[in-house]
């Protein structure tokens, strides 16, 4: 399983002239299994925080074996309210932040609730990575991103900055908690997973660590992000509750039926509300519950009938007596 | 006397973009499935020598005089098939990553072709034999894949050419996906290959 958790999604792309199907097909060809489309936001958050990436995508020939996720990257320029960020991250599969200076990096590493910390590596950074800061983030499940496309397609200055920043990040994080992504705006900038791992190996990340950065770490990001949304306070998640789908449907329809009858009656009885199951209370032909007095009367009738017939059909009649509705 | 050890890189040249820029080549229609588009045959104007030249300049650009000096003596293209866009490159074992990185940073073919391309190293092997076997296996697999996707479109030249180029006794060995991107990193010539 190889992951590429950063494929930029441009909102200006229209359905017929988009590069995206080609990029996705090419990534699938290179051997990736999971791809995340990235939508980058900066500045103030818009009023409605719905996902900007349409679901399902408006392209027809997408590679069938490729899993497509949605990711949102927020540039940390000014202070954001944490509640709004939680709401934003709920609309995407993965939530990433891009710190621009040391203060925001510190914020992202410590208190901010995000999945990926993505630093712009094409520029000379005005700060150093410190192990203490990074390890704090990695311990809480955040991952740092290295994107190689700017080095592949950019000029030598960008490539130099990328290599410098990537080696610093590898050094400061001691090779742990990194993920390698493409951030490829065109198909030419994509590279095979093993090529990217080799590149990281040249930059000082061991081959094993590089392999993890392409597979295991990315998976942990995806799973943790999913877990955050579906589980109860990020602790417990019901994966399979042992329910049988057919039985559930039957029960629901039954409930609907009884509710309908109550409304027709126009009365709300306490006994009905408590005793929902139909089998426990016997009912008459109209489906109304039978009162105790009525039940006793019926039983007496049945007994009398049984003694009258006496032995011809006695036991059966006596057995059937108390439950006339069956 | 210690033997000089090598690595053999099996390289695929992929074409992520349609060849609209090169004038002589007919433009492949958009209906052709993506897989076949990506595995186009390479232009005839590219040969092993120009490819070597390209790699040398790439290494020099990335790693400077040190890199090109380290790689220069051992670098050689052992096999190049334009029909399948496959090549086997030999490098000294200690410095194969330099060549690999240079290939990764290459975005287009050298001068006469000037076509956007992506080099994907699909196998690193200690022996040329294993690299050859993998090349054959992959060629067969790509033909089968193209047939599945395109429903046997005869308009595409790539599959037929590929059959001719892989000069082999075709034992119909079905390849599972495990092999697709396995990088073998055997240290000794006689070692068993293990895929990951």
Automatic annotation (TrEMBL), chain A:
Entry EC no(s): 3.1.26.5
InterPro entries attached to this UniProt entry: Pol/histidinol_Pase-like (IPR016195), RNase_P_p30 (IPR002738)
One Gene Ontology MF term: ribonuclease P activity
Record's keyword terms, sorted: Hydrolase, tRNA processing
GO-annotated biological processes: tRNA processing
GO CC terms, sorted: nucleolar ribonuclease P complex
Biased composition (Low complexity): 309-326
Region (Disordered): 258-326
Annotated coiled-coil segments of the chain: none
UniProt biased composition (Basic and acidic residues): 298-308
Enzyme class: hydrolase
Main location: nucleus
Localization, UniProt: Nucleus
Stored Pfam families: RNase_P_p30 (PF01876)
Similarity remark: Belongs to the eukaryotic/archaeal RNase P protein component 3 family.
Name of the molecule in the record: RNA-binding RNA processing protein rpp1
Lineage: Eukaryota, Fungi, Dikarya, Ascomycota, Pezizomycotina
Automatic annotation (TrEMBL), chain B:
Broad class of enzyme this protein falls into: hydrolase
Main location: nucleus
Subcellular localization, as worded in the UniProt entry: Nucleus
Superkingdom, taxonomy of origin: Eukaryota
UniProt biased composition (Low complexity): 142-166
Record-linked InterPro entries: Pop5/Rpp14/Rnp2-like, Rnp2-like_sf
EC number in record: 3.1.26.5
Comp. bias regions, Basic and acidic residues: 175-184
Region (Disordered): 139-196
Residues spanning the signal sequence: none
Task of the protein: Component of ribonuclease P, a protein complex that generates mature tRNA molecules by cleaving their 5'-ends. Also a component of RNase MRP, which cleaves pre-rRNA sequences.
Protein name: Ribonuclease P/MRP protein subunit POP5
Chain's gene name: POP5
């Amino acid at each position: 399983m190889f992951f590429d958790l950063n494929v930029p999604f441009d909102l200006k792309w229209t359905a017929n002239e988009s590069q995206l199907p080609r990029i996705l097909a090419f990534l699938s060809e290179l051997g990736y299994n999971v791809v995340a489309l990235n939508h980058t936001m900066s500045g103030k958050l818009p009023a409605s925080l719905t996902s900007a990436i349409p679901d399902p995508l408006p392209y027809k020939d997408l590679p069938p074996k490729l899993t497509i996720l949605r990711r949102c990257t927020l540039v940390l320029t000014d202070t954001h309210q944490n509640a709004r960020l939680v709401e934003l991250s709920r609309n995407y599969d993965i939530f990433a932040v891009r710190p621009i200076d040391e203060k925001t990096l510190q914020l992202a590493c410590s208190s901010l609730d995000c999945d990926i910390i993505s630093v712009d590596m094409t520029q000379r950074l005005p700060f150093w990575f410190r192990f203490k800061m990074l390890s704090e983030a990695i311990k809480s499940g955040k991952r740092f991103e290295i994107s190689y496309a700017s080095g592949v397609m950019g000029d030598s200055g960008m490539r130099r900055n990328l290599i410098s920043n990537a080696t610093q990040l590898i050094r400061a994080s001691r090779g742990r908690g990194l993920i390698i992504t493409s951030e490829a705006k065109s198909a030419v900038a994509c590279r095979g997973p093993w090529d990217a791992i080799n590149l990281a190996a040249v930059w000082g990340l061991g081959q094993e660590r590089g392999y993890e950065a392409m597979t295991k770490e990315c998976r942990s990001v995806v799973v943790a992000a999913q877990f955050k949304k579906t589980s109860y306070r990020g602790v417990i998640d019901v994966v399979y509750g042992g329910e049988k789908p057919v039985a559930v449907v039957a029960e629901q329809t039954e409930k609907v039926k009884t509710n309908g009858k109550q409304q027709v009656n126009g009365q709300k009885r306490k006994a009905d509300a408590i005793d929902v199951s139909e089998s426990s209370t016997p009912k008459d032909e109209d489906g109304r519950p039978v009162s105790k007095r009525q039940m006793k009367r019926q039983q007496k009738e049945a007994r009398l009938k049984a003694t009258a017939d006496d032995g011809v059909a006695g036991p059966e009649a006596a057995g059937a007596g108390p439950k006339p509705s069956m | 006397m210690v033997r000089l050890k090598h690595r053999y890189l099996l390289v695929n040249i992929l074409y992520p973009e349609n060849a609209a820029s090169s004038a002589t080549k007919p433009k492949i229609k958009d209906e052709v499935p993506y897989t076949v588009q990506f595995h186009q045959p390479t232009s005839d104007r590219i040969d092993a020598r120009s490819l070597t030249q390209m790699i040398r300049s790439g290494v020099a650009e990335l790693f400077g005089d040190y890199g090109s000096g380290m790689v220069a003596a051992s670098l050689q293209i052992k096999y190049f098939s334009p029909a399948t866009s496959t090549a086997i490159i030999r490098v000294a074992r200690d410095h194969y990553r330099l060549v690999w990185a240079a290939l990764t940073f290459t975005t287009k073919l050298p001068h006469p072709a000037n076509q956007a391309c992506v080099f994907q190293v699909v196998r690193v092997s200690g022996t040329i034999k294993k690299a050859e076997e993998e090349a054959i296996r992959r060629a067969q697999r790509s033909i089968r894949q193209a047939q599945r996707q395109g429903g046997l479109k005869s308009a595409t030249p790539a599959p037929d050419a590929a059959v001719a180029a892989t000069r082999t006794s075709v034992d119909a060995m079905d390849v599972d996906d495990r092999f697709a991107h396995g990088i073998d990193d055997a240290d000794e010539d006689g070692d068993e290959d293990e895929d990951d």
